[in-house]
Amino acid sequence: MRVILAPMEGVVDDLMRDILSSINPYDLLVTEFVRVVDQLLPEKVFLKLCPELLNGGYTPSGTPVRVQLLGQEPNCMAENAMRAIELGSHGVDANFGCPAKMVNRSNGGAVLLQYPNTIHDIVRAMRQAVPAEHPVTAKIRLGYEDKSLFMENALAVYEAGATELAIHARSKVDGYKPPAYWEYITEVRERLPIPVIANGEIWNSDDAKRCMQVTGCDSIMIGRGAISLPNLADTIKTGATPYSWADTLGLMLSYTQRELSGRKSDYYPARIKQWFSYLNRQYPEADTLFRELRIYKTTEEIVRVLEQAQQNLSQ
């Protein structure tokens, strides 16, 4: 079984990857996307998004990281794929699943699911550019407005030479609303000879087991569930006990210390509130605490609330 951390734009940055890989036995982490338009991007763009490249493409705890690219022009995607590999990325991934309106309006992400031939051309160009020993992978949804092209898109990725395919089991229109339609992944997995990775609505170890039973996949990708239950991958792979609220609060304070030691503090309030929006699903205590801290706008105020909450738990 493999468990892979999904590339969640604006959520799973290098610090979050560091934190989560330090407490989970992930097999692979995929970065937020590098936006490719019409040129070969400078090294600094890749290093800013994926500083792990300065460490051989690994997190401090030793988990491999794969750079993800998002774009619509095959030659540019190929050139930037090769640059990512040269810089140390463990393979390169193509994003055909992002549902963001801004991205879709500029012909990137899930909008390309309407055009299987374009997907094929992009993946083929990347595969031809990248040496055979390095994986070239892709992540798709089941479709854009509907799911009518789900198999065509999967075949396009495979026939272009991809190493493996991750499928988020919803269309762009479905967004993130439950359910995830795992049965579509089953059809793709039965059709394609390359590994297929199942993604969508995996919130706990029981969900992971059911997903693998339904799809027949031995690899899963987790996203929102990995943020709402920080040691989710560990519970899936080893049967570890899910983190308590005290464990999670301690992890948030560890994240806070590392965030504030290396970044501008004005970035922190929005990020920590965003994390609470995921934690609310798993921990009732998170909702209670968020109601207290959401009125605060400064880093100092929010940190004080978190530290007081931890003190209260230890008393």
Helix content: 40-55%
Secondary-structure element order, as H and E?
EHEHEHEHHEHEHEHEHHHHHH
- Under CATH at level 1, the class of the largest domain stands as Alpha Beta
| Number of separate domains | 2
Shape: globular
C-alpha termini separation: 40 Å
CATH architecture level-2 label of the largest domain? Alpha-Beta Barrel
Number of strands: 8
Short précis:
By secondary structure, the protein is an alpha/beta fold.
Describe the structure in your own words:
The structure is a single chain. This protein is α/β, with parallel strands linked by helices. The chain folds into 2 domains: 2-238, Alpha-Beta Barrel (TIM Barrel); 245-314, Dihydrouridine synthase, C-terminal recognition domain (Bacteriocin As-48, Chain A, Up-down Bundle). Helices cover 47% and strands 15% of the residues. It has an 8-stranded parallel β-barrel with strand order 1-2-3-4-5-6-7-8, surrounded by 8 helices. The model has no long low-confidence stretch (mean pLDDT 94). It holds the Pfam family Dus. Keywords: Flavoprotein, FMN, NADP, Oxidoreductase, RNA-binding, tRNA processing, tRNA-binding.
Using brief descriptors, characterize the structure shown:
8 strands; 315 residues; 8-stranded parallel barrel; 15% strand; 14 helices; single chain; TIM Barrel
Write the layout of secondary structure elements.
Blueprint: E1 2-5, H1 14-23, E2 28-35, H2 43-49, E3 65-70, H3 74-87, E4 92-96, H4 101-105, H5 116-129, E5 136-143, H6 150-159, E6 164-171, H7 182-191, E7 196-199, H8 205-215, E8 219-222, H9 224-228, H10 232-238, H11 245-262, H12 268-279, H13 284-293, H14 299-314
Family: Belongs to the Dus family. DusC subfamily. Belongs to the dus family.
Domain DUS-like FMN-binding: 4-307
Keywords: Flavoprotein, FMN, NADP, Oxidoreductase, RNA-binding, tRNA processing, tRNA-binding
